[in-house]
């Protein structure tokens, strides 16, 4: 039947021509993007360009599917076809199968092109291939099934004019052209209508205007999979209802299964998880954080106790789920103040024996009330930051960010444009276990033969994963971003040697020489660079976040910044740098 | 063997089938009834396009050929390709498909059009193509819903001979409201009205319903008629006007004439 329907597909111009136009556009875009790649040498931009035409694909597949199924009605052949044993089921399934060739072809061609680009880029991180596969499969193939099933449903159930009106409405709501509706409604009613909009819009990759994070890749978080699978299974449920399946048991199984999958994924979608949420400007904090900090005052208060050791069990899949046990230096205090980013919801706080402790949560601040003899505090929390992400795709949790309870009260953002690295004054013992499918890296030592387990003493327990790999040598401990990107080169021993050479030339402090051998060197990702760390360089007590400079002058500047941060501390250096740049601008 | 037992099927408030029961054995059955009497609904129920709300349909075969009342085909396909499409749907083995297609196409006299696109065929030819697809694969039950609509007289004759050719060991049901179509070919006739089986019998059984109920009389006596009667026709002869009346009462002023199957059908339908 598939072969017969394929023949019918090729012979029916109203169906065939739009598909040819779509495929020509899709392939043309892939070929043209090769030219762009030759200029920017950015594999991720190429991947982004590959999914740029998903909306066009959605429109044409919706139209084609509708017309294909409506053809049987229009030609008055439907009754003659459906009167055969399982006729309707066979016709519907074979027609859907034929239509599925279109997104399959798009997916396959996009994957082949991206694979070739991957090979030509000289990258050796093969996990990126999986990323290509999953992003294309999600948006191009699975995303392409939704309009096909919509077309089937409308062709069977509604009149032509009503179908076209409904399809146009859906396309309008799915595309970004309807963004003004939730925007306007939210302003007028003060109710967040964006969630309703995303419920449709996230079936397309509609965040393509955002800049790319090369450690993160394209946005293909689990909740997006949930949403797309939810729509597919819901429409499949309707599809099976339309099919005249004679075996009632089989029909019941299919209907129950699709309903179950759709319910499961709907729950999954609303359960959410860590995802990136941009602000009004490229380098500003996320919109939700902006709104939060305009209404919630930030505090600064040094702690009057210390945590002598942290024992952290982290689970990072959809988001960060943590259980942190802190051994306290002072057992008899009335209050214990901590800073924990407000995106992490505290679930439970207990003492060493598991007794619940009273606590007070105000935004980023958690105050645990002492019981007279508190040796240990155990906090369970879960959540995420929209900028310092932690999910299955990638994780960017620098030690200067309150993703774990940091003693005392600190300001998380300085102005409303960046997150302030918290300068932690004392080193503490950390024992961190991360449960995740991905490989994690840290400035702490990895426990041998135990995946994602880290121990050591530090002020900044940094955790990160994603498109990172160890580029360490005998001399330096380096973690570099593996994905080739525009203006993004992998940092290596040679580069660090050059920076060290400049440091040696410029360093006047003979008693406290800055030697990069003693640091864990982490390549700064785009989010940290634009939203957290000034100039993308941060010098901690054992960690350096650094970007790759390409010319000698900039390399020298990197060395100067590192030395300035060592001498002045990070925050004072930033204050001075901001004043200096403003005075240059004034002049 | 096909048995319909107390089938009821409604569309909104209208009962298209109302407690309909009928039994079909091998042979050609004519399904007679006025427009909207439930003939098409009954056929759709038999071939599974509709499910009756009440009652049951018992059928000892799975292979049913069906020519719907409105049959069209994909204009972009040729006659042969359309038949191939149906042959695949009917799961006719690939090796037999070509022979089967050509045989059926030949039966409906479309062999010279086999390579023509369906879009270029006339309405009657498309109807014949519909007949061909219905009989392809040697189905045990064939349902024709107004098969002769749009066919020219020559093709009607050809259709009747086609039925005689394929009738062996088959149950063929022809739905029509044209009585003359069925009288020469049907073994049995089922008269359906308002979704009910009014009467079922052979042609002579149906004809006998009209026996001694058909009268020719002068038109001027029309106003004197009493009881349940139906004016079937008006004719003029020698400057005089006559009417043919079906009446359950004997009409003294008229002349009793021989009933035909149409008279029997009308008497059954009008309860005369």
TrEMBL record, chain A:
PROSITE patterns: EF_HAND_1 (PS00018), PROKAR_LIPOPROTEIN (PS51257). InterPro entries: EF_Hand_1_Ca_BS (IPR018247). Keywords: Membrane, Transmembrane, Transmembrane helix. The keyword Heme does not apply. It comes from the Bacteria. Signal peptide: none annotated. The chain crosses the membrane at residues 12-38, 50-71, 91-116, 128-154, 161-181, 222-240, 252-272. This is Uncharacterized protein. It comes from Ruminococcus bromii.
TrEMBL record, chain B:
Gene3D superfamilies: P-loop containing nucleotide triphosphate hydrolases. Its EC number is 3.6.3.-. One of its GO terms (molecular function) is ATP binding. Pfam families: ABC_tran. InterPro entries: AAA+_ATPase, ABC_transporter-like_ATP-bd, P-loop_NTPase. Keywords: ATP-binding, Hydrolase, Nucleotide-binding, Transport. PROSITE patterns: ABC_TRANSPORTER_2 (PS50893). The keyword Iron does not apply. Belongs to the ABC transporter superfamily. This is Putative ABC transporter ATP-binding protein YxlF. It comes from Ruminococcus bromii. The lineage of its organism: Bacteria, Bacillati, Bacillota, Clostridia, Eubacteriales.
């Amino acid at each position: 039947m598939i072969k017969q329907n394929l023949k019918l597909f090729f012979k029916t111009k109203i169906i065939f021509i739009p598909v040819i136009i779509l495929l020509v556009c899709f392939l043309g875009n892939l070929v043209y993007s090769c030219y762009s790649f030759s200029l920017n040498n950015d594999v991720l931009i190429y991947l982004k360009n590959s999914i740029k035409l998903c909306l066009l694909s959605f429109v044409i597949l919706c139209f084609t599917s509708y017309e294909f199924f409506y053809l049987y009605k229009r030609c008055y052949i439907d009754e003659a076809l459906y009167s055969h044993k399982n006729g309707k089921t066979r016709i519907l399934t074979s027609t859907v199968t034929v239509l599925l060739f279109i997104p399959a072809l798009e997916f396959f061609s996009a994957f082949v092109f991206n694979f070739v680009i991957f090979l030509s880029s000289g990258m050796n991180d093969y996990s990126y291939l999986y990323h290509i596969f999953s992003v294309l499969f999600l948006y191009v193939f699975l995303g392409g099934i939704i309009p096909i099933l919509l077309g089937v449903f409308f062709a069977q159930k509604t009149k032509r004019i009503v179908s076209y009106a409904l399809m146009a409405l859906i396309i309008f709501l799915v595309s970004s052209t309807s963004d003004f509706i939730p925007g306007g409604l939210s302003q007028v009613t003060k109710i967040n209508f964006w969630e309703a909009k995303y419920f449709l819009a996230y079936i397309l990759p509609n965040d393509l205007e955002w800049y790319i994070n090369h450690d993160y890749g394209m946005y293909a978080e689990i909740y997006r999979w949930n949403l797309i699978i939810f729509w597919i299974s819901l429409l499949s449920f309707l599809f099976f209802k339309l099919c005249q399946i004679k075996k009632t048991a089989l029909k019941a199984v299919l209907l129950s299964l699709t309903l179950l999958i759709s319910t499961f994924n709907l729950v999954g979608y609303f359960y959410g998880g860590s995802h990136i949420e941009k602000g009004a400007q490229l380098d500003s904090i996320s919109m939700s954080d902006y709104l939060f900090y305009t209404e919630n005052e930030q505090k600064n208060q040094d702690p009057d106790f210390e945590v002598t050791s942290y024992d952290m069990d982290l689970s990072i899949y959809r988001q960060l789920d943590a259980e942190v046990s802190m051994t306290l230096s002072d057992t008899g205090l009335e209050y214990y103040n901590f800073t924990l980013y407000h995106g992490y919801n505290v679930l439970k706080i207990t003492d060493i024996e598991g007794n619940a402790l009273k606590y007070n949560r105000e935004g980023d601040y958690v105050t645990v009330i002492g019981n007279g003899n508190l040796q240990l505090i155990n906090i369970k929390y879960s959540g995420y930051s929209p900028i310092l992400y932690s999910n299955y795709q990638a994780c960017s949790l620098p030690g200067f960010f309150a993703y774990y309870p940091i003693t005392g009260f600190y300001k998380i953002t300085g102005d409303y444009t960046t997150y302030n690295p918290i300068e932690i004054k004392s080193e503490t013992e950390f024992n961190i276990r991360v449960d995740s499918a991905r490989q994690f890296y840290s400035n702490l030592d990895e426990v041998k033969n135990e995946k994602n387990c880290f121990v050591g003493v530090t002020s900044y327990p940094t955790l990160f994963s994603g498109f990172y790999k160890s580029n360490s040598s005998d001399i330096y401990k380096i973690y570099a971003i593996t994905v080739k990107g525009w203006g993004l080169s992998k940092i290596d021993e040679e580069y660090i040697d050059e920076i060290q050479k400049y440091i040696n030339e410029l360093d006047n402090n003979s008693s406290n020489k800055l030697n990069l051998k003693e640091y864990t060197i982490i390549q700064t990702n785009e989010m940290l660079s634009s939203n957290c760390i000034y100039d993308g360089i941060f010098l901690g007590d054992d960690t350096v976040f650094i970007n790759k400079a390409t010319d000698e002058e900039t390399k020298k500047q990197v060395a100067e910044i590192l030395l300035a941060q060592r001498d002045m501390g990070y925050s004072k250096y930033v204050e001075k740098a901001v004043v200096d740049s403003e005075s240059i601008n004034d002049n | 063997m096909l048995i319909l037992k107390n089938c009821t099927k409604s569309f909104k408030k209208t009962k298209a089938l109302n407690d309909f029961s009928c039994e079909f054995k091998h042979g050609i059955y004519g399904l007679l009834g006025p427009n909207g009497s439930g003939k098409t609904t009954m056929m759709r129920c038999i071939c599974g396009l509709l499910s009756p709300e009440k009652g049951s349909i018992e059928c000892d075969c799975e292979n049913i050929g069906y020519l719907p009342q409105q049959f069209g085909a994909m204009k972009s396909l040729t006659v042969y390709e359309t038949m191939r499409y149906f042959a695949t749907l009917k799961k006719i083995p690939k090796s037999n498909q070509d022979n089967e297609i050509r045989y059926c196409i030949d039966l409906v006299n479309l062999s010279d059009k086999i390579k023509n696109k369906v879009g270029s065929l006339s309405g009657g030819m498309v109807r014949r193509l519909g007949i061909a697809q219905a009989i392809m694969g040697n189905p045990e039950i064939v349902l024709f819903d107004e098969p002769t609509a749009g066919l020219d007289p020559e093709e009607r004759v050809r259709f009747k001979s086609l039925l005689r050719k394929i009738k062996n060991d088959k149950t063929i049901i022809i739905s029509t409201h044209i009585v003359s179509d069925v009288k020469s070919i049907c073994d049995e006739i089922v008269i359906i009205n308002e979704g009910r089986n009014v009467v079922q019998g052979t042609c002579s059984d149906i004809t006998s319903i009209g026996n001694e109920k058909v009268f020719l009389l002068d038109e001027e006596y029309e106003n004197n008629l009493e009881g349940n009667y139906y004016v079937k026709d008006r004719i003029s002869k020698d400057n005089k006007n006559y009417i043919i009346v079906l009446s359950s009462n004997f009409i003294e002023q008229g002349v009793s004439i021989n009933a035909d199957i149409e008279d029997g059908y009308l008497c059954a339908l009008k309860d005369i």
